[in-house]
Amino acid sequence: MTTREFDGIRLERVREFVWELPREGDMRVPARVLASEALLDEIGEDKTLQQLRNATHLPGITGHALCMPDGHQGYGFPVGGVGATDVETGCISPGSVGYDINCGVRMMKTNLTYADVQGHEEELVNALFANVPSGLGGGGVVEGDMDTVEAVLSRGVDWALEEGWAVEDDLTHCEDGGRRPDADPSAVSRKAKDRGKNQLGSLGSGNHFLEVQRVTEVYRDDVADAYGLQPDQVVVLIHCGSRGLGHQTCTDYLRKIEKRHGDLLADLPDKELAAAPAGSELAEQYYGAMCACINFAWVNRQLIMHRVRQVFERVFDRSWESMDMHLLYDVAHNIAKKETHTVEGEERELYVHRKGATRAFPAGHPEVPPAYRDVGQPIIIPGSMGAGSYVLRGGEASMDLTFGSTAHGAGRLMSRTQAKQEFWGETVRDELREQNAVYVKAQSGATVAEEAPGVYKDVDEVVRVSDALGIGDKVARTYPVCNIKG
Question: Binding of GMP: at which residues (predicted)?
């Protein structure tokens, strides 16, 4: 058996791409890293493994604490982390969901080909940048009041449908139909609502983006056909979350938990893992608040998609319906959900925490939308501006190996501070345009530098591991045409 050691943390190779940190000391369960040797070397460079080991101390955690192939250091819980805790005897951990609740991705299809877009790239990237709000602070597609925010938090994309910002087809192709019924808007603070009311329909900043892409490869013809994907087709990828509202909600509950459940915190190796005991008042309040933030994020991406449809109508002088601009799928990757999983032969209800990890349910699972139930849930894996992205489908092994989860992207190699020291934004932008025919527009050069292709891991390798393990199977690959960022 091969072993690897990083800063005193020893991993044993269970089989190809599966590395285990055996249970020892106060660990409640073992931990596992799903990675190739090359990815494991990168994962071992920061504090990811330490954070993964810390996560095994969460009350009620079951099976294994898991790190996906794109894992890297986060706050408390690693990005790319999955941890399942018992809903009766365990806990729910805001730090294991993250500050950007329901950060996620949606992909919209079109019937346009790359040839249809060529010659329009500059017009398109400028029009998208002018019409889709981005960057720090306020400003959104909808300038909402408190009643609007309350409705969005409660009803999710149902609200968008009622207000004319969505069509029925959008709901049937979104995780959970675009609404978490357990949402409790009253559990979201006034401060959080104030931060969110002027951000409905906005990308925000950081690694969030809107990207027009073209399909370059198809790996599974039958699944791609079910998803409506074919080579040379133009698609649109939207990546953002719950903005300041979600960040404030996470902050609020971390502070509340620190005050009320200090005894539990004292037993955890990192206070950023702050967790509320299952069944406690704070656990119920946080779950309701988190579900409300999930609804907000789905509406946020829906409003951006609506605006994108309008921009395409103006640029290409035809209706969005005639361009067949329909949602392929929307899936969250910062979330904790009550799900039923089989653990050691017993069905148990668990809080499945996915922080920088994507749900990956296989064919036949009842929570996969009917349109995709025969082939498996779509998974969208964004890469970098210079490497492209992937569409996968939920793999047959995901339920046994990862509580129905896989990676969420390429995963960062370097911090934003280091990226700005290594790269010059204008140079990155010019090289992408001249060498890759990718048009990029952002609020600042610093943003482009922070998101330079060299900042990220090899998305091809991340997806290769997912596919080989059978947790997320390759369906199609896409490549950027134009990209806007905050």
Answer: 207-211, 333-334, 382-385, 389, 408-411, 485
Q: Which of 44, 42, 34 is nearest to 4 (CA)?
A: 44
| Segment 377-385 mean pLDDT | 95
Q: Give 251's pLDDT tier (boundaries 50, 70, 90).
A: very high
Cα distance between residue 455 and residue 52, in whole Å: 22
- Judge whether 460 is annotated as a binding position: no
> Is 410 annotated among the ligand-binding residues?
yes
408 included as an active-site residue: yes
CA separation for the pair 486, 215 (Å, rounded):
25
384 is in an annotated binding site: yes
Say whether pLDDT at 194 is over 90: yes
Sign of CA dihedral 484, 335, 71, 219: negative
Percent of the chain exceeding pLDDT 90 equals 94
- Structural domains of the chain sorted by starting position, each given as residue range(s) with its CATH number in brackets: 3-413+456-485 (3.90.1860.10)
DSSP label of 384:
-
Average pLDDT, integer, range 357-362: 98
Point out the catalytic residue in the list 57, 72, 353, 408: 408
Answer positive or negative: Cα dihedral of 209, 214, 217, 219.
positive
Q: Is 409 annotated as a binding residue?
A: yes
**Is 27 known to sit in a ligand binding site?**
no
Using DSSP's 3-state secondary structure scheme, residue 468 falls into helix
- Provide the 8-state DSSP code for 78: P
pLDDT tens-digit profile of 94-144? Answer: 999 999 999 999 999 999 999 999 999 999 999 999 999 998 877 899 988
